[in-house]
Structure formats: C-alpha cells, structure tokens
C-alpha cells in the first residue's frame, strides 16, 4: 500500500490539514500504517500537484491560515481502482524468529541475552495491545455506521494480532528458559 492510499482513505473519512492527518496517523491509522509528519506533507503536496486532493485555505484568528484538504474526483477514482485491485499476501520477515532459531547454535549466555530481548519485545507488544484496547473503548463505545464498523474491524484485527504475538512470545520464553535446565 502506498501512503497516498492511506491519506485518501483518511481524507474521505474526514477532510483535514496536514497536521490533522498526522494526528490521525498517530491515533488510529498508525495502527496499520505509519508515516512521519514530513512524509505526509511531502505526499500531500504531490497529491495536490497530481489533482488527487483539493486544498482550501482556512483563516484562523491570531494564527497563520491552514490548508485543509479534501479528496478530488481524480483521487477518488485512483482510490477506487486501488481498492478493487487484488492484494498479494505479505511476505513475513521476522528478525526475532531467525534469532530464536539461531539460539540452537549459541551458548547459555547467548540464550540469556535472547531471553532479555524477547522480554523487551513482549513489553513493546503489551504496550501496543493496551493502546489498542484504550482506543477501542474510547473510539467505539457503540458502533453505528458502516465507516465505524469497518474501522472497528481493522482495530479488532490489530488486537487479535497483538494477542497472538504475546501468546507466541510466552511460548518462546517458556521454551528458551527450559533449554538449560
């Protein structure tokens, strides 16, 4: 997926400025697609040049004007075409899994270091799961319309993924800790 597609979806959900898009990426879209503020602004400029988005200057009292973007007909057509394209399954590349396999060729000290790394990795995923659960409670107390239902479905997929990873990491830790007994 290109960042352009994620931006188009976000702007169709709600027009906004580059800053507002960046905040949405931090809060919700970032659950499955990350982008820096610089990337968002750079891509928005290109999308404007290509006629995919339309800017609107909005005056603000005591602050510089802001540009709010909405999706132009060309951008909607590009997105619809992309939505209808088949999606190729993603290749899984997982450095930690390779390290776990390689632990068979390391000594007990190396496996101890790997256990610490798996625990650090697990802490990161626990924090991500907690953020997702907080977001779910905040953003989806009652799901009503199609857009909310689909957004919630994506979030539930992220929650399920994080729970699966945490289950797997628990199994990895049990296995690693049991090797040198």
UniProtKB/TrEMBL annotation:
Any Pfam family matching the protein: PadR
Identification of the protein by name: Putative PadR-like family transcriptional regulator
Signal peptide interval: none
Lineage: Bacteria, Bacillati, Actinomycetota, Actinomycetes, Micromonosporales
InterPro entries named among the record's database cross-references: Tscrpt_reg_PadR_C, Tscrpt_reg_PadR_N, WH-like_DNA-bd_sf, WH_DNA-bd_sf
Transcription regulator PadR N-terminal domain segment(s): 7-79
Domain Transcription regulator PadR C-terminal stretches: 92-176
């Amino acid at each position: 997926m290109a960042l352009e597609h994620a931006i188009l979806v976000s702007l169709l959900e709600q027009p906004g400025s580059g800053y507002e898009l960046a905040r949405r990426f931090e809060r919700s879209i970032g659950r499955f697609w990350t982008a820096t503020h610089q990337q968002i602004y750079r891509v928005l400029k290109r999308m404007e040049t290509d006629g995919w988005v339309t800017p609107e200057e909005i005056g603000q009292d005591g602050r510089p004007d802001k540009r709010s973007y909405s999706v132009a007909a060309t951008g909607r057509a590009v997105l619809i075409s992309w939505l209808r394209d088949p999606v190729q399954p993603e290749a899984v590349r997982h450095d930690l899994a390779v390290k776990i396999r390689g632990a068979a060729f390391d000594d007990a000290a190396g496996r101890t270091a790997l256990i610490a790394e798996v625990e650090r990795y697990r802490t990161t995923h626990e924090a991500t799961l907690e953020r997702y659960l907080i977001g779910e409670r905040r953003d989806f107390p009652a799901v009503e319309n199609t857009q909310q239902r689909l957004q919630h479905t994506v979030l539930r997929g992220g929650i399920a993924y994080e729970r699966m990873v945490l289950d797997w990491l628990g199994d990895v830790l049990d296995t690693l800790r049991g090797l040198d007994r």
